[in-house]
Design a protein that fits this description.
single chain; about 0% strand
Length: about 180
């Protein structure tokens, strides 16, 4: 993490691994192999983990073992083209809201029930605001612009090298 925070080139190389999620499923094999060759050696453990979990290890011949998470599950390429949300931020936000309401990670049953009631009353209030015509919170302009840039890059897949494509995607998000 220290090198990621202080070395912009290393950070970009690390983000390219996450950018593989924006590659079409049928082009992942080549993109991953090229990324593995060009990545700093310090990223090799992460690339190995990624290969085991998301790509599947190569077997003898040209096949790969089954990955823990099938490519169709984690690839967001088609979701971007279809204009569908590519994250589960709504679920994460609900989880954070519940955790802050409980004030602890593992509440006892009665604290859990009371917390759920408080969260529900907040949701009821938000629903009533929506019903009376209030606009939902808008996405921040910088995220809208990043989404537009990502869509342009994804739409142009195949017109750039894999390295340029991954770099373009990786320049549009940060990992913290």
């Amino acid at each position: 993490m220290r090198r990621y925070s202080t070395d912009p080139d290393f950070a970009l190389s690390a983000r390219k691994i996450a950018a593989l999620a924006f590659v079409p499923v049928n082009a992942l094999e080549t993109a991953f192999d090229e990324l593995t060759l060009e990545s700093p050696t310090e990223l090799q453990p992460i690339l190995n983990w990624f290969e085991d979990s998301y790509m599947g290890r190569p077997t003898r011949g040209s096949a790969r073992q089954a990955a823990v998470f099938p490519r169709e599950t984690w690839s967001v390429y088609q979701r971007v083209l279809d204009g569908v949300s590519r994250t589960n931020n709504y679920v994460e936000a609900a989880h954070r809201r519940m955790q802050s309401e409980f004030g602890m990670d593992h509440p006892v049953v009665w604290k859990f029930i009371d917390g759920i009631r408080r969260v529900q009353s907040g949701r009821d209030l938000q629903y009533e605001q929506f019903v009376r015509g209030e606009e939902p919170t808008r996405k921040r302009r910088k995220f809208i612009r990043a989404d537009d840039r990502i869509l342009r890059i994804v739409s142009s897949h195949g017109s750039r090298t894999n390295s340029e494509y991954l770099r373009g995607i990786a320049n549009n998000f940060l990992m913290e």
